[in-house]
Amino acid sequence: MRLLLIEDDQQTADFIIKGFKQSGFAVDHAIDGQQGLQLALSEPYDAAIVDIMLPKLDGLTVIDMMRKQKVAIPVIVLSAKNSVDDRVKGLYAGGDDYLVKPFAFTELLARVQSLIRRSNSIAEPKLLCVGDLILDVDKHKVFRGEHLMDLQPLEFSLLEYLMRNSGRVVTKTMIMEHVWDYNFDPQTNVVEARISHLRNKIDRNFPDKLIHTIRGVGYVLEKK
User: Fold this and answer.
1) Distance between CA atoms of 142 and 223, rounded to whole angstroms?
2) Residues in a beta bridge with 145
């Protein structure tokens, strides 16, 4: 999952970024409304977290302009203001949820995950299965048969993306857009390296290989 955070307070931003990265998200961070709007209009995101009080463009203006440009990703509004009027303004501007500072990260994470699920026309399954490979989204666990796989957060996110696209070839660019942030250098071989590490954990000790390379195109996860 890829998240856009528009927040000018660095301490708050660091707190949010650390939490989401540990939960397997890629996070792009904009420090003002203008930069945030540019990213929202040019990059693919699963959700956005937008502070109201921002330099250059305030958060409500950013959200309003996103909606006018048909950017339909779910948005959580962050604000130190807790009045009913402020919450209503945030929702009328196009926000999908409203969270008052200070907040617990676990609540923010739960709200983001809920919005992402609701934003899909078909609810995303929480238990993904391909052959004897099982990924439990809620429990953040992966099994191959009866064996519990030890995956890092980024590996879990990569595997989830491959499993949600089971049987479909995904390109390196598609993987980068959904698993890594926009500062990622496409000239590096980090995708190939991560796929290799994932293969070693998922396929190495099993006769049926699930992760396949389509030379010159990308990768596909399927049981053959």
Assistant:
1) 16
2) none
The CATH topology of domain 2-119 is Rossmann fold (3.40.50)
Instruction: Tell me the two tokens of residue 155.
Output: 């590996």
Tell me how far apart the alpha carbons of residues 72 and 95 are, in angstroms, rounded to a whole number: 10
The CATH classification number of 127-221 equals 1.10.10.10
Give the C-alpha separation, 146 to 220, whole Å: 23
Length of the chain: 224
Find where tokens 């996860």 sit: 221
CA distance 71 to 150: 36
Provide the residue-wise pLDDT of the chain in tens; the chain has 224 residues.
Answer: 889 999 999 999 999 999 898 888 889 999 999 999 999 999 889 899 999 989 999 999 999 999 999 888 999 998 887 666 766 776 777 788 888 888 889 899 988 988 887 776 545 667 899 999 999 988 889 999 999 999 988 899 899 999 988 998 988 878 877 777 655 565 668 888 889 999 999 999 899 999 999 988 889 999 87
Among 116, 103, 109, 214, CA closest to 164? 116
What is the 8-class DSSP label of residue 19?
A: H
The ranges assigned to domains in the chain are: 2-119, 127-221
* Residue at 99: amino acid letter: L
220 forms bridges with which residues in the sheet?
A: 212
